[in-house]
Design brief:
Layout lengths: L1 H19 L5 H4 L28 H10 L7 H13 L3 H5 L2 H10 L10 H6 L2 H21 L5 H5 L2 H14 L1 H4 L4 H19 L3 H5 L2 H7 L8 E4 L9 H5 L27 E4 L2 H9 L1
Antiparallel strand pairs: 1-2
Helix pairs in contact: 3-4, 3-8, 6-12, 8-14, 10-12
């Protein structure tokens, strides 16, 4: 069952990446898609400036909306994120995020791996600091103090934006190469460092830095579709937490990306994904 679930999850990840970036001609011309769909957000982290992107990144949209708060309340993006969070939570991270897929593929490169520990669990809290400072506080400060819309996380940190947007545009558009400055150099170094770290440490960006994952984690206990444990059957053996590569303390908590890898290791068959646990148990018996 684990192999089937992982295969299906990989197909969904690939399909999401292709759907988010369906403007394939953009990867040849270097021109961004500017159709009406660009005003609609996708659930996962996918840069607006990627030549293939046909939708907006919810994180970038949130920062832009916060920057406009002196004049306009961010009803649309706040409602969208809440809806996705209530329906899926961090299932988005496990199934619908292209940059999550990139991190997982990099981790498959055969090298010694850094296992999770108390240090990684402590570092997993850093993403909430990034969310507060770069997604909320800095855009608000720029908006009220300077009157400028500055999506600080996208501008100073986001490796997905650099990889999906910055690198292709610089490669495809000669006019952009002449304006490369210190900021692009910083983001290039940071992107490369994060990608290299992901080879040795499972989903390093997802675990330590991603503010979108931090937002979705707030819906962990109430998301409609998620990995859950039938506590009446659980013996508390801890195999699920030990097997998980994320910094979870319990299955389905805020650090869980609901990939479902823990389902097959449960000796009591009491872990399920979806809406109804009975369906999962029946599928394990078949």
């Amino acid at each position: 069952m684990a192999d089937k679930l992982n295969f299906r999850r990989r197909l969904i990840q690939l399909a999401s990446a292709l759907i988010y970036n369906a403007n394939l001609t953009g990867f040849v011309s270097g021109k961004l898609y500017k159709g009406s769909n660009k005003g609609v957000c996708v659930p996962g982290l996918n840069c607006y400036s990627c030549p293939g992107a046909i939708g907006s990144c919810p994180l970038g949209a949130l920062q832009n909306a916060i920057s406009n708060m002196p004049h306009k309340a961010p009803f649309y993006i706040a409602g969208f994120i809440m809806l996705v969070g209530l329906l899926l939570g961090r299932v988005v991270c496990g199934f619908l995020c292209p940059f999550g897929l990139i991190q997982e593929l990099l981790h498959k490169i055969p090298t010694p791996k850094i296992k999770k520990s108390r240090v990684t669990r402590a570092l997993s809290k850093l993403k909430y600091v990034v969310l507060a400072v770069f997604v909320v506080m800095l855009p608000l400060w720029y908006a009220f103090a300077k009157g400028l819309p500055v999506p600080a996380f996208c501008k100073y940190i986001c490796p997905a934006g650099t990889l999906e947007g910055g690198f292709p545009l610089v490669a495809l558009r000669e006019e952009y190469r002449g304006v490369i400055g210190i900021l692009f150099g910083w983001k290039t170094l940071l992107c490369i460092a994060i990608l290299v770290l992901c080879i040795f440490l499972y989903r390093a960006f997802c675990r330590f830095l991603c503010p979108l994952g931090a937002i979705y984690s707030l819906f962990a206990k109430i998301a409609l579709i998620a990995v859950r444990v039938d506590k009446t059957a659980c013996t508390g053996c801890g195999l699920c937490v030990k097997q998980c590569k994320m910094d979870v303390k319990n299955v389905g908590d805020g650090e869980c990306i609901h990939c479902g890898q823990c389902i097959s290791c449960c000796p009591q068959n009491c872990i399920y994904i979806g809406l109804e646990k009975r369906k999962c148990k029946e599928s394990k018996e078949s």
